[in-house]
Amino acid sequence: MSTYEKLLQEQIRNEFTASQQYVAVAVWYDGQDLPRLASHFYKQSLEERNHAMMMVQYLLDKDIRPHIPGVGEVESDFRTALEPLELALQQEITVTKQIETLARTARDESDYIGEQFMQWFLKEQVEEVAAMNTLVNVAKRAGDNLFHLEDYLAREGAGDGGATDPTAPAIAGGKV
Fold it and tell me: Burial code of 37-67, b = ≥16 C-beta within 10 A, e = fewer?
């Protein structure tokens, strides 16, 4: 197994962990009676799960047996509504670095198919970091009035899933 393939196996765990982290964030917002924020992060959780399953499908297509791991620890106790957003932004920045490493490793190993597979994820991470950065900024401007943030999500449709991206890799088991 190449280094790229080993890193991709690890990234499956990272994506599932990110999914669980977003469930924890969504549940926290639900408990704070902030339904738009909760809904946004429930959807983000599904998106991260789908990313993991895209990687699983890629490995299956390459006749490589994917390993489905347990997930890492997640944070579920927050003191302010801004904390989960800042955590999510840092998580997206970390995932971006992981995806960059995967793309670089595939290129270094002359795995052009693997490199091409990572291109969609690189584009996706630019969007994810930008969207999360915007949410953090809106939350900071909203201050203690979180209804401004809820209104923003309702008005802008942030995290509504948008149209299906025809360039997205196939998802093992189908999109959830």
Answer: bbbbbbbbbbbbbbbbbbbbbbbeeeeeebe
Residue 56 contacts residue 12 (beta carbons within 8 Å): yes
CA dist., res. 48 & res. 58, Å (int): 16
Q: Which of 85, 3, 16 is nearest to 45 (CA)?
A: 16
Estimate to the nearest angstrom the gap between the alpha carbon of 46 and the chain centroid: 9
User: Residues near 171 by Cβ (< 8 Å), separated by ≥ 6?
Assistant: 50, 53, 54, 57
Residue indicated by tokens 């991709």: 8
pTM given for the model: 0.91
> Residue 73 in contact with residue 110, Cβ under 8 Å?
no
In tens digits, what is the pLDDT along the chain, a chain of 176 residues?
899 999 999 999 999 999 999 999 999 999 999 999 999 999 999 999 999 999 999 999 999 999 999 999 999 999 999 999 999 999 999 999 999 999 999 999 999 999 999 999 999 999 999 999 999 999 999 998 889 999 999 998 765 555 577 888 888 777 77
